[in-house]
## 1
Amino acid sequence: MQQLLELYRRWSGHEPLTTEQLPGAGSNRAYYRMTDDEGHSVIGCIGTSRDENHAFVYLARHFTMRRLPVPEVLAVSDDELRYLQTDLGSVSLFDAIRGGREAGGRYTLKEQELLKTVVRELPNVQFRGARGLDFTQCYPQPAFDVEGVLFDLNYFKYCFLKATELDFHELKLEADFRLLAKDLTAEKCHSFLYRDFQARNVMLKASSSDDSPAPSPYFIDFQGGRRGPFYYDLASFLWQASAKYPDKLRKELIDEYYSAAQQFAEMPKRSVFDHRLHLFVFFRTLQVLGAYGFRGYFERKQHFIESIPPAIQNLRELLSHAQCYPYPYLIDLLRQMCELPRFKQIEVVAQNRSDGYKTTETNPYKAHPKDGPATFSKYDGKGPLVVKVFSFSFLKGIPDDESGNGGGYVFDCRSTHNPGRYEPYKQLTGLDEPVIRFLEDDGEILTFLDSVYKLADAHVARYIQRGFTSLMFSFGCTGGQHRSVYSAQHLAEHVHEKFGIEVRICHREQNIRQVLPEKTA
């Protein structure tokens, strides 16, 4: 730390007024915000690898010269283990889109536009950034190649697959690994491969211009970059496990990227592009599972442990299109892995961890010696659970619970902004796109539903564990047309997506019924 302070003094000519360590992420580097008495701040970095720091400094200076949106390196220590860079603020893209992520992938128009802005900027870094770049300065290797792919695949094998204790044939697996590596490196690319392109590595800096009030994206943590295929970064970004981007939004972002990239390079035909992209999605999913296994299982970092269930779910979705991946032994092994009881169970556990609720296969309650034998509900162990979700008008009364349980939840949506007060929306319902945009842009309904989701998730998980058969949620508003319909539909889809159980929807005042069937394994 003293050496970093000395570097600051040499650069600025005075001591920093304050020095604040910033929260760490997945790397071993430590970052500090150093502020002077006039309120100007810079970021100081202490690294553990001279070569890694050297790569970052070289790349940052090259990108700055090409006027790309990256932090400017201000000073570097003689041993290159410490450097100062411009302060881009504290708001990352990951922070800015938190609402949509926590709403199960329901991103507002503002959040979607932020994502599109970032995706449109990515080809600028990849293609313009590669011009004149000396790739021999990259760390740990100058280019994406077969050896690098095999390293990442073996990282997955040793840090994740072997930890599952699943039996497999090493030579057959290695043969498919080599086929996959050959396919991934078949297309020669001269673009810059960012390698760790994700929402946490995009900072949003407020514009200094009144003409452009929207924040501008800046890119950080590119020290692992090298020459390589541009598909890789798009796959990393759009299939980030925790982001939960819906398919429709993913497709729109891919379109934005493809259109923007055509301004910098001749792109392959769209069908070829899409095929290659999904091959990299498959590879990237295995790669991140390797990282999550090492950081989570071995280093015991909670963030990475909690990232495993959504990554496994991504893999399950990819395996449903296994015909795209001509690696039969690998695909069969991955299917077996996804069906292991620990991954069936961990999905529910991790999804409810943030709610302070944990589902286990064993009975968590220990009887006191003076207690008598435990008694259980007559409804225990029947299963499977069916969730019924209603929208209704309070003027016409709360829906009856036909299950005979006489319970469930009733939520009052009338505290949120009512689109029914405005003429353009009076003939529409909460299922219509203009009403959805109105409610999501306003944002009150998203905050309301965030609390509902947490309560519902814990309750559904518990009912599944106990083998209960029925649970009811009802949403009421003034007319049973806008807010209640939107809320009921979104909770139903959320529960169905998260737990895969049968959900029955009834928009009572609109005379609309829908059944979301139980997902089969």
Note: The mean pLDDT is 88.
## 2
Amino acid sequence: MSANGDAYIGSKKRRLEQDEVSHEIEALPTPNAWGVEPANAKEVGHLRVAKGKISFVRLNISLRRAGGSDDYDKEDEQTEFNPAEHDPADRVIGDDRKRKVQNRENNVDLFALEEQLKSRLNSMKKSNEEKSIEQEGDGWDKAQEYMHVDYRSARDAEKVRFELSEKTKKLMFSLTELGIIMAMLCMIEILPAFGLPLPAAFLPDKSPVTYLLLELAALAFAAYISWNDIIGGLKKILKRKCSTRTVIAVTIIAEMLHIIYMLAVSVTTHGSISNSFAAPICLAVWIYTFNRMLTTIRVARGFNFVIRRGEKYAAAAADDSPVAVDLRVASGSQNSKISYVVPVRHLSSYFQNACRDDNCSLMMSKAYPYCLIACVATGLIGALRGALSGGSFLSTGLSAICASLVACVPITGLLCMEIPLYRAVKTQLDKGALLNGWNAVEKFGDTDTLALNTTDLFPRGSIRVRKAVTVSDMPVQQVTAAAASVVIASGGCLAEVFRSLLEDDKSLIGDADSITYENELGISGWVNEKRILVGNRSMMETHRVIIPGGGLSRLDEFEAMRKRPGHQVLYVAVNNRLEGVFLLEYKASNAIRNALVQLISDGTNIMVYTCDANIDVRLLTDVFDIPSRYISILDNDGSRVYDSVTYAAEEEHEALLATNGTLRALSGGIRAAVKLKENQNLGMMIQMICFGMGFLFVAGLSSISSYAIDAAQIIVMQVVFVLISLISLVKAI
């Protein structure tokens, strides 16, 4: 911004005003190979500036020969030039087999990038709004504590990390206290059932007041430890919503009222009392607290990954956007679930995703209102049955309600869901990947095709130059520098190879423009007004490259250098003349091979983006020893789309599945999401079966009589259901 308020784009030759802008730039140097005289170009462009944003309106370009009149209205003085007419190969390969390659260092399309960011931000905003509406469960309430924190600040990040650490310690302490109380109450209820004697003070028939006071004190202490959860559960009722905390809160309050009533009856009338269910309630609360502790530890570990400084890589799933349509067409299937990776500087919305409730909890939250109604109905039936049999209407009713409420606490769902996710997150973090909660599982659990760049398959050191041959008089260093200028500008796995050949000396790398990848042939571009071709034998033949010392027959000699699978020959031509030949060896690391094998064993296909024509299905099959039917190479249309969304690092991306950039980490994250999604369905089925059987069992017996079911029976039922849930845990682990 200048002192007088004018703004500029790039150099000061592009001047902006508030409404409309016209600017002129000098003509770029015209390559000699075009066969035309040096030209002057006048570019008339219009940019519109509004509210601090720049939008493109129109751009007209006309080209005139040097020495012509300055009157651009004379049509006879203007010359339109098409470089394609001067390249005989273009008539063979056609435009549909050529694509422009993003220069990963210089060429940034600001307008396309702006539209891309707008699309991403809108989709993320819409997604977050939808999740905030449908996921107002326990996890959403926990996420609210940190949603306002901008953890890009090191101070804020450290504060959140400290709070998570303190919460973990408190939950561990609470879990220990609850465990002691729960163990004591369970022993009081179970030991007499197996004929083991207890002191009279612990027996309800011999010392009912002492027994009830002990039960009430233990339950009150459990309620004190879980006070925040009880308050949160009661607030849900006021909002006409239910969650696991709601059921626990209602169950604890109902049982405390039940014990107080029995204590009053025992003190005033010395009458018989019904069974107390404090022990199974404490067991359910202990399992819930254990689940909360695992969740907090998982969130804290993932947060440590998120706040690490440096560029990360976030997986993105192709959904209903235009990107998805093009990639699906490229994959050959309209029903493909395609995922790919984008570089990103900041992972946003971490806590919203990390604390999101699983589908089992969301499903149960919808069923809880009906469960509470069923519990009240069970209590009324039990009360009527007790009154008709000569018992106490209120005592039998409260006993039936409390017993059925205990059966409504989803202990199997809590274990089936959080433990597998906790272990999966811990394992993947050790590999360098963050699987952020059940939103990540939902997003990537259906992935059947993974789009990869060749740099993922062949990182630095995987490709080696075994031999370099100069064909004409050009020194090998100049040949290498010319090829490196084009290859490095286009990116890909060969860029690292040529960087190492030049020993990372950037002074040897020229400015390359008009970089184009010709499908199954290679890369072409202009460097210092020289046309550079880097590709395979077919590229040399298609472009009718001059081959010194024997013509096309000499190419057979170069091809004979390939001695074994993984060897490929790379040709370099300058100004349509072959100058150098490189023998390359492609090798696969064991980590990447194992990652691909594991992906394919799970039924995931691999779709590869490449700017190296030597990398084809056959090479990948030979190097990685995987079936060719699982591999495909992105065509030009798909490559353009893939390149447009992955070539530049995004400022921020939703924290779902993030990695450190290695294929091992990405493969592990995808596989874990697929496995957890399968396990989630199994866990939901187990939870529904256990819930239905347990509720029918407890409600049926409690409806018969207040003495038909006791706490020991419910504890045994809970333990059996926990053991059943191990089916899901073992499968997931």
Note: Residues 663-704 form the longest helix (42 residues).
## 3
Amino acid sequence: MQEVPNKKSWREDIYVFQKNKKFLATALALTLTAGALLTGCGDSAAGTPGSTEDDRQEKNLASDDRINRENAEETPSTGASLPIVDEPATLQVWMPSDVAQMNVCAGDLNNTEFYKQLEERTNVHIEWINPASGTEQESLNLAIASGELPDIIITGSRTVNYIDGYDAAIDDGYYLDLTDLLPQYAPNYMAWLEANGEDFIKACKTDNGRFAFMGAFMRVEQTPFSGYMIRQDWLDELNLDIPVTYEDYENVLTQFKEKKGATAPLFIQPTIDFWGLGIGYGAYGDFYQENGTVYYAPYSNPEGTRSYLETLHKWYENGLLDSDFATATGWTADPVMVNNGNTALFSAMYIQPQSQYAAVLEQGGSFTALQPPKVNADDHLSTYQPKGVYGGAAIISTSCKNPEIAIRWLDYLYSEEGSLFASYGVENDTFIYDENGKPVFTEKITNNENMDFAGALRYYVLAPGQLAGIMDWTRELQMVDEQYCAMCDVWVIDRDKAIPAEAVMNAEENAEYSKIFADIQTYVNEYCTSLVTGTQSFDEFDTFISNLNTYGIERCIELKQSALDRYNSR
């Protein structure tokens, strides 16, 4: 193998587990073309034709005593021991489908180069169960009801799970308790958790202190891939600075309307990013925590909430906010409105200037990322939006006859070698090392004759949101101009008001909470939108706050508090 200068330095940067508690993870799949990697899942894919449950169990049992420990070629530098088994073994894996992936592999993941290579390396064949998009929870429920669960369950979303939670799934006999198994058979996974600190371990345990899954992690914290953008060329032309305060925002938006003819200088929509500009007032529109105490912003901070809504109403009345914002859909700005110059301050993804707003660039325009406004320029911004330590999860079911094989197969992707393979594929084929020792994709990925970049990722390496392991999300930045990648750094805001994503309610709490909060959420959304458009008067704002109490918001806060308390006690 060709010697590459500084190769080891990159590997150490990734895999000599850094004792830095900033290593947070996310399940979010960063996209390289609008809609390409964030598309919904699609048609289901069948498992290996002709195989049966008895065949699969027989293969697993036959290999039960052939786990390759003593005779495997140990590679201490990678933490991997391959193959996983001497004799071929078969595992059945349930994982949500991805219509784009299925198009690339003709409906069978085993047709992709990545999964072919993974089988060759591990000697473990996978029979896939890939439920179609929108049927994932139903599919899992049916498997649970049948009592014949697949060996491994991959949940790419936190919303798909055993309805009563992980602890109940273990107690009810569906999920394996991995607490004693992971230290024995998943050394790479445990090394990652232990090296990243107690917060990581706590987030990956249940409320009862058990390991119920193996989480998917990012090598380094993934920066936000969306936030607010503004037309930099207009700022330059009008000799304006990037706005910082609410007063600055209003001045810039006014200039855009009066001197550039923007009909909707500011674009937001009534649900997804309605509260995004309110964090400067502490108007979060949701639950948050301070020093371990849970609050609901509209109820707990009515002054800040009112100030923000009054600001939006003023902007709406003055024609600075899109007049049709109350009916707007989508979570980023409409490309037509951006390209024709009707809007110039909006929420978007960092890839969109090159992909969807290219008409502006072709005319000499430019975009700059900016943070939400502050009341005072030196104020500290803190977001309430949670970010999970782990993304998807890999669960071992009690139907698995060989949990040792299943765990060791998964653990390979937490090793140095396995993580590098999952992120970049095969050296000198799909990637090489650059002069700084960092892996970069070859043209097989970046300029493939038969598929676009998103398709190549799905075919040659581990696609976002699949399986588990440690992924290098920065691989996707290779296809985006550096100036737009830099936007992600601007959008980073402290999350010290966020309730951890892993602080979850149990089934009983969630049922009560959902019943109460559904009406509250509808009421808040409709009332606050009406305040902005002027169909409701601020004279009734105090009644709005008291109505939240009548609806039961204090009970919702109590339920959220219980979940947070249990999380903090893990």
Note: Residues 507-533 form the longest helix (27 residues).
## 4
Amino acid sequence: MNADVPQPLIVDVLLPLRLAGKERARRKAVAEALSVEPARIVELRLLRESLDARHKPIQFRLRLEVGLDSPLPPLPPIHREYSHVPDHAPKAIIVGMGPAGMFAALRCLDRGILPVVLERGKDVDSRRADLDYLHKSGEVNPESNYCFGEGGAGTFSDGKLFTRATKRGPVQEIYQVFVSHGAPSALMTDAHPHLGSDLLPQIVKNIRQSILQAGGEVHFQSRVTDLLLSTNQRSVRGVVCADGRVFEADAVILATGHSARDIYRMLHGKKILLQKKAFAMGVRIEHPQYLIDRSQYHLRAGERRDPLLPAARYALSTKIADRGVHSFCMCPGGYIIPAATDDDEVVVNGMSLSHRDSPYANAGFVVTVEPQDSAELESEWGVLSGMMYQKNLEQQTARAGGGQRKAPAQLADDFMKGRISSRLLNSTYEPGIVSCPLHELLPAGIVWRMREGLELFNRQIRGFSGPEAQLVGCETRTSSPLRIPRESPSLQHPEIEGLYPCGEGAGYAGGIVSAAMDGLHTAEAVAAQLKSQA
């Protein structure tokens, strides 16, 4: 660094809601913070923007880079090009085209490795048609649904891109890749960025084009059913697909997502080491969005939020008798969706569009499930017992709904008092809801903790468990109930050389950004291993 070149200053300022976007107000606030004349401020650049709604008046907190007495150095353009990888380059099979798989493929290209992506589901446009049919008919396509298909479960979700897993990798790099593939540039400065399921499909398609243009391969409707192992069963040579096609490569990255139960069964059947892990189950809780706005923005009765404010969100968490009780995947201005992957299940999840303009808010309201909770299933299912504990509740939920993907529901107040709801509120869950005693459907250890959690959270958000709150069941796919182990630093499975468990399905991520970072991290490990073998 040249000491003679003046370095940009970083300044945090608070500005009222209606002034935060005005350049003149920003300059004045920065000049006051630095105790300088406004004329000395040559340029301002927004680094981070967050909402401070703890008190009235609501303000925006801006982190600004300041060019004092001179302009700021220009930023490099956010544009990623990937060098073409020749056919004779080392190959990595990537099973799954969710965030982990996509970003693993991009990093493989960076490292001169040819990625061969095998996705069991369809391309994002065909997938959208299958989802429309699911909403109309209630019929689940087991290979093309809210969990399986191009982009993974994150494509049709709220598209939340903030993460607390910053120690795992370069969050800004993930954002840059999204922006270079069509995401709004505001993604780089928003403290809680999200994209929405109306924007994500095109971004996912653009990432696919980057992979193809650089020589990579993407194969849809290519469900992997087996691993090709060496004679001594200690290394992997490739995979076999359901239609009999065989793909061979130098490495296999398993990035299948948390719902690929057939992959867990296949690994277990081959006696490849798996481990049970904690996950969470519960319901979706749905409220009118104005109720959340009223609490989070300190509005008076009948007062609506300012149009400049986004739909309010929340994150609630506590521990009750050594188990976590918390909100999950909160969707302001969102919708409850049918996320089953088999026709004998009902599973609910949440999504929203980029504008988050639905009149309802929803979130998972879940309780931690520990490995010992499924102990009674271990004699039959072994390490898969947690997965079957999850599956059993999904089947019971389907029976309680009565068919056609209808979901059991109950007013929060009735759940608290242990009575069936004589009426239900409107819901965004399109297949429809039916009144059901969720307090009898859910495991007892989840029910009493949910009741205590509802009582506690109602003190934090007025009306959270009140007459306008409705529970829709059941939320079961918060994370994988299994971990596919890997060793550090190679990230290979401890028993199978060349097999790289990755992302949410392997138990190493939770959300779009952390899965994407794990994809980058895993591809780097593959590159390091192949280089050492060259």
Note: The mean pLDDT is 94.
